[in-house]
Structures are given as C-alpha cells and as structure tokens.
Write a structure and sequence with these properties.
It is rod-shaped, with a radius of gyration of 30 Å. It starts with 19 loop residues before the first helix and ends with a helix. It contains 14 helices and no strands. Helix 12 packs antiparallel against helix 13. The protein has 372 residues and is mainly alpha-helical. The relative contact order is 0.10.
Length: 372
C-alpha cells in the first residue's frame, strides 16, 4: 500500500522538479545557507528571479537579514531559524527539513556565483516568453479601439525586455536559436481582407497617378498571391509611365506568369473594374493588417525560442532582435503612411580609442590648446 503523507509532513522536497533550474536554485540557496557571506558574490538576480514562491521567499529572507557571525553560524542554527521564520511570511509551506535538504544537495558552496548566473539566465528566458505571449494576446484582441498604437506600445515593452537581457548577456556573433520558427497563424477575416485588396487594386487601376503616394505599400503586405502580383504589375506600369487600365494590367500579369486556372483573364478584368474610395485609404488598411500579422509572427517566433530551454540567453537575444527588426521595418512604413514619423534621435557620441589624434581637426584642436 502506498504511503499516505501526514498533513504536517514536509512535501516541498518531494515535488518533482519541472526543470533543471530547480536543482540549480536548490544548490544556490544551499550555498547561501551554508556560507551566508557568499551573498556578496551573487549578482544579477533578485527574489523574483526564482521559479517557485518558496525559493523566492528564501532568497528574499537571506538577502534582507543581516549575515551571521561565521563562528557563531558554525555552532548553532539561530540565523537559519530567522531565515525560516522570515521566509514563512511569504511561503507558509517552508519547513526546517527543506532547509536541511537545500544544504545537503549543494555540491560546492564556492560555486554560488555560477549557480546565480544560471538562475539569471533562466529568469531571462521566462521574462522574454511572458512578454512575447502578452504581445500575441494583444495582437489578436479584436476589441482594441486603436490596435496599431496598442500593439506598437507593447512591442516597445518587449524590446525593453530584450534590451535588458542584452545588457546582461551580450550576443555572440553567429549564435542563432536552434528552434524552428513557427508559421504565421494570426486569425484574420480573410473575406474582408480580400474584398478590401480588390478595391485597392481596382481603385489604383482607375487612378494610377495616386500609386506614387503609397510607395510604402509592398506586395508582401497583401494577403493573396494574385493580389500581390497584380500590385507589382500596377507599380511597375506606373513606374515606367505606361498606360494603366484593366487590359494593360492583365497583359502585364500574363508577362509575369500570374495567370493560371484560378486566375482567368475575365476574372482579373472584373476584379479591376470596380473602383471605390481612395487608393491611400485601402493601402493603409492593407498595411495595418500587414503590421499586425508581422507583429504576431515575430512574437510567436520569440515565444518559441524562449520556450525551448536548450537556447542560451545569447541565442535568445539574437533571435529576438531579428524578429523585432521585422516589426520595426513595417512600423517605419506605417509611420510614413500615417504621417507620424518621429524626429530622429540624437546619436550617442562615437567611442574613441585612447591615443594621439590623427585627423586635421584633431591636430588643430591640440594646437589651439597649446597656445592657451
């Protein structure tokens, strides 16, 4: 018959660790309980860096209590009792036997800085995954009154997390995430998108002079391959200053190999024959969909990278930055489309190496100083 634990029996050390970092946290806490003075060697982490409330509460207690006298600590458990009492204020399930377990499982207390670096790395991965998942939720929230502005603000928050991780784990050249990027899965109204793209193409065919004003719209912003190809036809004809009408666009489409069984000439002609509204309006709508889809794909990539514990923080930084660069590229075009381009940020002063000046201006400056 299996043993049934008593209500007061400590079960913290019986919990199956969900990840290797659980063992790392145990080793670090055990090192600090054995040699509290090693806390001064531990940097880059705080209580919220730990994966369980019990471990977070213990680290907070160790960090806030004055360290004991080493000689006294070796003789009695007074300081350990204080740590336990303080930790129980946040995690009531903590027991003296669990502290004993932590001490027992610590291989080498002098390795505490290495353990802390591992805890910091795992915390960075969790932070990145949480921020990316939040952006995914916001991108797919159809109730937002201003979706683009809200998504971009959350993308900035995700970027801030990446920047903070970068400062802690500077990326290494050539280190890429080993996780395959997931395909785009944003939920959108394909019927509405197709109808609006048809109106864009028809209106641009009727008013080709307006195509120049929406150069920020790219073929990849459109959701259907045929629509993307026809937009390429329109922009090419306009760029070459050739006549633009449904027939010339159809001929250009044939030259580009766009016509097949699903794209019959009569179907294309009908698609281009019903303009409405303005080119700029429909182009902006297409770009908005593209921005949201790009943000969705980027944060799903980042979430996939962060969800793979085999990726190091260095790999996460490289992968996240590449994904965020895709958002930035569409964001720049959106700002041009809506007239919201921010003023350029002042560039930081370039770092210079110590040594004698080599430019003419530098020599002049040195000479001027010498005459003072």
């Amino acid at each position: 018959m299996p043993h049934a634990p008593e209500p007061e029996e400590d079960d913290l050390d019986a919990i199956a660790p969900p990840q290797p970092v659980f063992h790392v946290e145990q080793a670090l806490l055990g090192a600090l309980l054995l040699d509290p003075h090693r806390l001064s060697d531990v940097t880059g982490i705080a209580a919220d860096s730990f994966s369980t409330p019990a471990h977070a509460a213990l680290f907070a207690a160790i960090s806030t209590l004055p360290p004991p006298d080493p000689a006294e600590h070796a003789k009695n458990t007074k300081w350990l009792d204080q740590v336990l009492a303080t930790g129980r204020q946040q995690a009531r399930g903590l027991t003296a036997s669990y502290l004993h377990t932590l001490v027992q499982v610590c291989p080498w207390p002098r390795h505490a800085p290495a353990y802390a670096r591992m805890v910091e790395a795992e915390h960075a991965r969790r932070r990145l995954q949480t921020a990316a998942e939040r952006l995914t939720q916001i991108v797919n929230d159809a109730s937002l009154p201003h979706p683009v502005e809200t998504v971009l603000a959350e993308a900035d928050a995700l970027t801030a997390v990446v920047d903070d991780i970068t400062s802690r784990f500077p990326p290494r050249a050539g280190v890429l995430p080993r996780t395959a990027a997931p395909p785009p899965t944003i939920t959108t109204d394909h019927t509405e998108a197709a109808e609006e793209e048809q109106l864009l193409l028809a209106t641009a065919t009727a008013h080709p002079a307006d195509i120049e004003s929406v150069r920020w719209l790219l073929p990849d912003d459109l959701t259907r391959p045929l629509h993307a190809g026809l937009w390429q036809c329109l922009t090419a004809l306009a760029r070459r200053r050739e006549p633009v009408d449904p027939v010339t666009v159809l001929w250009e489409a044939q030259q580009r190999g766009l016509l097949d069984n699903a794209s019959e000439p009569s179907k294309v002609l009908r698609l281009l024959a019903e303009p409405a509204g303005s080119v700029e309006h429909w182009a902006e709508r297409a770009l908005q969909r593209s921005l949201l889809a790009t943000a969705d794909h980027a944060c799903r990539r980042i979430s996939a990278y962060a969800g793979d514990p085999a990726n190091t923080p260095f790999q996460l930084v490289v992968g996240a930055r590449r994904a965020l660069a895709d958002i930035s590229a569409v964001r720049t075009r959106w700002q041009h489309a809506t007239g919201t381009v921010p003023p350029p940020r002042p560039r930081p002063a370039a770092a210079t190496r110590a040594g004698p000046p080599t430019t003419t201006a530098a020599h002049a400056t040195r000479a001027a100083r010498a005459t003072r």
